[in-house]
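Exam revision sheet. Question 4 asks you to relate a sequence to its structure. Input first:
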Amino acid sequence: MSVRINAFFILIFFPAVIRAAVYYIPQDYASLPSAVSAAVNGDSIIYTESMTDSMTSVNLTKQISICADYDVRPVLTITSASSYFFLLNASNITLRGITFDCGYNAGNGLQIEKSSISVINCIVKGATNYAVGGNVSGITNILIESCLIFTNNSAGAYNSYGIALTSTYSNCLIYRNIFVKNTYAQISIGNSGVPSCINIFGNTVF
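Answer key, structure tokens:
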């Protein structure tokens, strides 16, 4: 009887520790959509090879990290026309070391819909509206650091931005990025609404 009671006590008061999972591409899953489908909040997806991963647009609704391993540069491409490539539709998302080639099929490259988003050491090219950004009110804590954002243009309409935070964004840092040949503007802040605490420094524009 005492053994059963002790076991019950342990189960109630010392639950098992649940650790975040790490999924590797291509070892665990061949492509990103499959890995995202398996992941839950807090998990990480890591590319271990410099590969091209083709997919339709992605609506990312999980709080996860998508990163490249050391000295690896995977290229994500979109295969069909869409208004966005990556819809960042959950908070606490980190993208690191990934190249997003919109191929002029996506209007927006990385479309930010939630707070606490980090985009670090990424390349975003080929979007026809804005490469990184959004126009949802009340977004906070956005980090865009050490990214290369280039050749985002709309083939004649000239309304493409490198980074566009066009509503009431706050507590954002745009730092050490490189902007090249984005046809309308490299950075657009506050076209609709008044942003606050936007820190922009150390960027390079060509």
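Marking note for examiners. The longest strand covers residues 82-88.
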